[in-house]
Specification:
The chain is mainly alpha-helical. It has helices at residues 2-25, 32-49, 53-74, 76-80, 85-100, 108-124, 143-152, 159-174, 184-200, 211-227, 241-251, 255-270, 275-300, 310-317, 321-336, 339-354, 359-386, 389-393, 398-420, 424-440, 453-465, 485-494; strands spanning 473-476, 499-502, 517-520. It is 67% helix and 2% strand. Strands 2-1-3 form a three-stranded parallel β-sheet, with helices on one face. The chain is globular and about 75 Å long. The chain crosses the membrane at residues 30-47, 54-73, 85-102, 161-180, 208-228, 240-267, 335-354, 360-381, 401-418, 424-441.
Length: 523
């Protein structure tokens, strides 16, 4: 019953704000969900620092409900103007909900951070502090945890609902593609394929990892900036760039890279024309990054794993040179054998010849190559500065890092081409690159369990022994946990960082009496 009420309440609030934005700003419907969601993240981020998260989410959605009632009774025509685009948006949410409902988290990174931080915020109605020992990666930005909190707080806790909420935000970024007005039928079909691509190519919707969200958020901001000339359109539209950039920087540390790429385009577009737009964008990026860095420094006194800092670069470069040389060779091999980038470049070269060396395509080709190279240089230094020797040897998570820039560039290329050209070759090549990415490229790597069996084992033990949170637990697995995923899953389920793992034949000796609980899963 609570979940049904939450759906109706949040849907009404969403429609209320959608009508308000459409009425006041005459913005394209495709951009509205992304505008609303990033603004919501922005408000919750501020509320989190003021310890007003719960009050803020309630008040914001009550105002949305009031707006919905107002438009329903006084101006239904505005509500009607949200459709048919919103039909596709809601149908997509329905399909995602059907696919995800009832699932449990199975991925390593959900256990180690993303699901853990979201659950903590929902329980505390506040951001984590140094006293919250269950959060290991304290320096990771929390935009998606804020968004999940803002929606999930109205529902009964269910892991699959968190997945659905996360997917809705991903969808809002992809949905910006529908803002294209040329050849509406084909663009609707292309938008559907873009949505499928967005949920398949990198991170699947059944986990909370943010790499795909990084790509779709970056793309959504770029498409918004590319579509509108903020000097000619409604003058207030440019202020939406503030919550958009804050959200991108707060999605993940590498969001700063994508923000800078978009900022360069904004400077190119508005230099000597409208400095206010540049200042808003630059200020939003700089202040949000500074704010988060200061929060981490003041609250936790260290930067943490995978964060970008000069000191960490120096410490990384000072490690084993043979290891770094081997890593460098493998890294460069993967860069030069990047089939998706070669496919993207090939498509642009074909169009370049077909369009008789159109300056737009030359500029687009030059831009994506430069962005890719700069991103990979940053990626390289991130690896050697923050990864362990074992992670360096196997280029841990390289696949999803490179697919992040793949998706960002692919979406931008397809959007820019279809915005400017309406010929069949452009449409065909757009379809081909998406089909190539979905059906020809190898499936993205996933680090996690294949099924729920181990999760059910842990939860059965937790319920049977009525184990409270933050207890010291010794768990005996069937074999040594080399990947650490069994230990991480145990830490997540038992909500404790004091989990010690052992196995039959373990040379280390443990005294059961030193622990609050002993769980034997070795049989």
């Amino acid at each position: 019953m609570r979940n049904i009420f939450a759906i109706l309440f949040l849907l009404s609030s969403f429609l209320g704000y959608s009508c308000q934005v459409k009425d006041k700003f005459e913005v394209k419907v495709g951009f509205i969900p992304f505008i609303l969601f990033t603004s919501y993240i922005f408000l919750i981020a501020i509320a989190a620092r003021l310890s007003l998260m719960l009050v803020t989410t309630i008040i914001v959605n009550l105002i949305g409900l009031i707006l919905f009632v107002k438009f329903l009774y006084n101006n239904k025509e505005i509500l009607g103007r949200l459709f048919p685009e919103y039909f596709l948006f809601f149908i997509s949410i329905g399909i995602l909900s059907f696919y995800l409902y009832g699932r449990k988290f199975l991925m390593y990174d959900d256990f180690s951070h993303w699901a853990t931080i979201s659950r903590l915020l929902l329980r505390k109605d506040a951001i984590n502090t140094g006293l919250d020992t269950t959060i290991s990666f304290k320096s990771y930005p929390q935009a998606m945890a804020y968004f999940i909190y803002g929606i999930g707080r109205f529902f009964q806790f269910d892991e699959s609902i968190l997945m659905i909420i996360n997917s809705i935000f991903t969808l809002s970024g992809l949905f910006c593609f529908i803002s294209l007005t040329k050849n509406k039928v084909i663009n609707y079909i292309l938008t559907v394929l873009v949505i499928i691509y967005g949920f398949y190519y990198n991170i699947r919707p059944y986990c909370l990892l943010v790499d795909t969200i990084l790509s779709t958020t970056g793309f959504a901001i770029f498409s918004f900036v590319y579509y509108y000339d903020f000097r000619k359109e409604n003058n207030y539209l440019k202020y939406f760039l503030m919550p958009m950039f804050v959200s991108l920087v707060y999605v993940k540390n590498s969001g700063l890279f994508l923000s800078i790429f978009i900022l360069i385009y904004i400077i190119k577009k508005y230099m000597r024309k409208d400095y206010k737009i540049i200042i808003i964008s630059l200020g939003s990026i700089f202040l949000s990054n500074l704010s988060w860095s200061n929060h981490i420094k003041n609250e936790f006194s260290y930067t943490g794993k995978h964060s970008m800092s000069i000191s960490q670069y120096k410490s990384g470069i000072a490690t084993n040179h043979d290891l770094i040389n081997g890593f460098t060779r493998e890294f460069l091999s993967r860069v030069f054998n990047d089939y998706l980038m070669w496919a993207l470049i090939s498509i642009l070269i074909i169009l370049l010849i077909y369009k008789k060396f159109d300056k737009l395509i030359i500029s687009l080709l030059f831009s994506i190559v430069c962005i890719y190279v700069i991103y990979q240089i940053g990626n390289y230094f991130m690896f050697i500065s923050s990864m362990t020797p074992g992670e360096l040897r196997r280029l841990a998570c390289y696949d999803r890092y490179v697919r992040t820039i793949h998706m960002f560039l692919t979406l931008i290329v397809i959007y820019v081409l279809n915005f400017n050209y309406d010929d069949y070759l452009t449409k065909i090549l757009s379809f081909l690159i998406l089909i190539f990415s979905i059906f020809i490229m190898p499936k993205s790597e996933e680090i996690g369990f294949n099924n729920n069996e181990f999760r059910y084992q842990l939860e059965e033990e937790k319920n049977k022994n009525k184990i409270p949170r933050e207890k010291k637990i010794l768990i005996k697995f069937k074999e040594k946990d080399f990947s650490r995923i069994y230990t991480r899953a145990s830490m997540y389920v038992f909500e404790s960082n004091e989990i010690t793992d052992t196995f039959p034949g373990d040379e280390k000796q443990f005294n059961k009496n030193d622990y609050d609980y002993f769980i034997d899963l070795s049989k």
